[in-house]
UniProtKB/TrEMBL annotation:
Coiled-coil intervals: none
One GO CC term, this protein: membrane
Record-linked InterPro entries: OGF_rcpt, OGFr
Domain Opioid growth factor receptor (OGFr) conserved: 1-147
Entry annotated with the keyword Nucleotide-binding: no
A Pfam family per the record: OGFr_N
GO-annotated molecular function: opioid growth factor receptor activity
Descriptive protein name: Opioid growth factor receptor-like protein
Biological classification of the source: Eukaryota, Fungi, Dikarya, Basidiomycota, Agaricomycotina
Amino acid sequence: MNYESQPLQAHEIASMKADPEIVDRVFRSYELMLDFYGMRLQTRETGLTARSSRNHAERYRNLVRSSHNYLRISRVLKCLSELGLEHLNGGFLLHVLNEQSEHNQLNTAGIRSSMDRWWANCIRNEEERKWVRDTIQKVRSKDGYVFTREMYEQALERRRDTGYLGAKCQAAEATSTTTDGA
């Protein structure tokens, strides 16, 4: 931590968001971080994340054992939000949730706690944050709800196509169809 650093000012953030080279560097830094944790970014557009094809098991073990990384992840997610790349947060969170739910990977008390208490709250969009938190709660319930890879991919595709991860878009589409058909 650099005690001499200054918080970014709004005009500095706007300038950084408008510079394609800076945005590309942020993407590359994010991809490097994902690789360190045994993951890879499949698509920049949606934030779809997957296991790294090389040594993900070793990297996952390191992430599970090294809880000091959880604060780093919080900082990365906050930074992505500040720089207009918040869609990557949902991609990351839902990937981890899928790994926990469907594969029992990254499923430790420490990661679950960080995810539930901190990482999910890094999503600024209230509707998206609520949908992610509700989905996490379904997985955490004792009902045996499994958040599959297919559900993960569909949620990101739905957001790309409609602007919503969850059912709100489906309800809006149903209303629109009913109104259009009348």
